[in-house]
């Protein structure tokens, strides 16, 4: 699965959309937090992002692409929940939601 478009909003994003690294963290796979980096931004995502207005557009990657786990192994899970954070490059800083539930995708 994958392909759903999400918008991440917040202050302090890099003005160049591709310099904002989107991270997905879950504990559903092993019981401990594992963080995966999103694939590089597409031209469409860069175009749809409005970082000057605090908006970053991303398309959720397929789970097997994001995690590197074969689709067959992922089929044993009924639900996976990921918390999203953004790492900016200048300054290098991780941005997380103050209310963590607002940054979850399922």
Automatic annotation (TrEMBL):
It comes from the Eukaryota. This is Uncharacterized protein. It comes from Strombidinopsis acuminata.
């Amino acid at each position: 699965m994958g392909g759903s478009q999400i918008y991440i909003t917040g202050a302090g994003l890099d003005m160049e959309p591709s310099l904002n690294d989107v991270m997905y963290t879950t504990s559903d796979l092993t019981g401990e937090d594992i963080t995966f980096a999103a694939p590089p931004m597409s031209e469409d995502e860069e175009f749809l992002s409005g970082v000057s207005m605090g908006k970053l557009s991303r398309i959720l990657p397929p789970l097997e692409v994001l995690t590197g786990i074969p689709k067959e192994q992922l089929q044993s899970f009924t639900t996976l929940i990921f918390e999203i954070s953004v790492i900016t490059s200048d300054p290098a800083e991780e941005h997380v939601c103050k209310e963590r539930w607002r940054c979850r995708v399922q």
